[in-house]
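queue> pop job 88
queue> type: inverse folding (structure -> sequence)
queue> payload:
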């Protein structure tokens, strides 16, 4: 597992790749949103949430949880962040 910020042309929704677990699960970011991208090899699922302020929840904590917490979306809810399904094809 890597934790890095890079410009890459392969991103689905964001401008930056913050973290990934293999090729199927990644955390992307643009100027307003963080995107959870999951490919189950049948269809691609994307959730998004507004980037919280540093005082609300530091970005480093989100990346660490993405890489290390099972049930990352539940962790977000427990930390006051609600994600939404993102229609990435529109």
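queue> result:
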């Amino acid at each position: 597992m890597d934790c890095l910020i890079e410009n890459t042309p392969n991103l689905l929704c964001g401008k930056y790749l913050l973290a990934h677990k293999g090729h199927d699960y990644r955390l992307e970011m643009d100027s307003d949103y963080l995107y959870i991208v999951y490919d189950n090899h049948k269809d691609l699922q994307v959730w998004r949430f507004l980037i919280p302020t540093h005082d609300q929840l530091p970005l480093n904590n989100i990346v660490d949880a993405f890489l290390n917490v099972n049930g990352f979306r539940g962790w977000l809810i427990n930390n006051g962040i609600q994600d939404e399904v993102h229609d990435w094809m529109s």
